[in-house]
């Protein structure tokens, strides 16, 4: 419920400047659209910071579509349900550049620029969440106690994914407010909000990498076979694959995401001003945002978690509906029992006071009996 409210609030800010008000500012000039609807970036009816080109947008959409197909196939082949998160990230990248292709051909359609901007800015968060979920399963699968840094594997998955969702919400709000159709003041506010979200994302990545290093050092300290610390064999006696390739793959993915975050912070830190060339050159976006995400998707395609997280032990235990209801009823019964015991103790204390003997004496007599 929170995300729709944030998006709605941001959309009100963005859409507050409708096309009819384009000439309301003394400094605002509405330009006559040229080829593909292109106008100067400082015109009121400019919805891009540069002249978007069709060919690279098409090529990028095709590449991301190929990655989406590969990861969809691998999800079914390796039977890893949670990879839908990664597929969503790749799919959002694909849709972003399909829309960007349409926008490059019709640059006066503000809907294209806004939708591309939002999908493109938020897609990497899905990939980030997938890295969190994968490492949590690595801890669960290879460490006998299923914990690192004092945190259980399922706790790592839960809290880091929640942190990613929080970053998603903040960045979504900022990304919508920073739509090219918004007023300069709203755009600045949106960029500031978006950068806060980026900072939160990077902070949790650093904390997460610290946990990964703890896991890595612990496994290395176990020696070559790792039997002193690591669970090297499955319940059926088969030896588990090495943990190293998947760990190095996750390091690579997080480096790619960090490169992209640094680029975005560098892009927006100096504002949308002529002396800051980064926002006004499309090449930077392809080189420092698209390419790192392609590298991340390629790494996860080659070193897919399904190659290393094998067997039922590689996933968190899944309770049936009947088991969930039984656990819920058991928890409810325990709570009621605790409440009844507390009430009984309270009544005993009140009764003892009424008898004038004092609660302490009643307790002592009870102990003697």
From TrEMBL:
**Taxonomy, superkingdom:** Eukaryota
Compartment list: Membrane
Q: Where in this protein does the record put region Disordered? A: 318-369
Q: From start to end residue, where is composition biased (Basic and acidic residues)?
A: 318-353
Keyword check for Calcium: no
Q: Which residues cross the membrane?
A: 57-77, 84-103, 115-135, 156-178, 193-215, 248-266
Per its record, how is this protein called by name? RTA1 like protein-domain-containing protein
Stored Pfam families = RTA1
| One of the record's GO cellular component terms | membrane
- Membrane topology, record value: Multi-pass membrane protein
Q: Which UniProt keywords apply?
A: Membrane, Transmembrane, Transmembrane helix
* Xref: InterPro entries: RTA1
Record keyword Membrane present: yes
